Amino acid sequence: MYAPEPFPPNDLDVAKAAIKALGFALSARVILLLSIVFAFVLAVIAALEQNILALCVLVAYAALGVIPMVILEARRKS
Description:
The protein is mostly helical and about 80 residues long. The chain has a domain at about 40-78. The protein is built from two helices and no strands. Helix 1 (about 10-50) runs antiparallel to helix 2. The longest helix is centred in the middle third of the chain and has 39 residues, at about 10-50.
């Protein structure tokens, strides 16, 4: 017995694979963009509230969320 040969990929399969790869690459950048936008929103809230708790939340979010993602994105490019 012999194994049947697989069908060659058609144009639709190639397009699906390209769109999937593009979506994967862009998803990390969209998440990074959203985290930076949310950091700006937190900064505005901290400026309007003018209390130490809002500032602590902003610093914690930036230190634990935004800065590590920016570092990972910068390392990925180099």
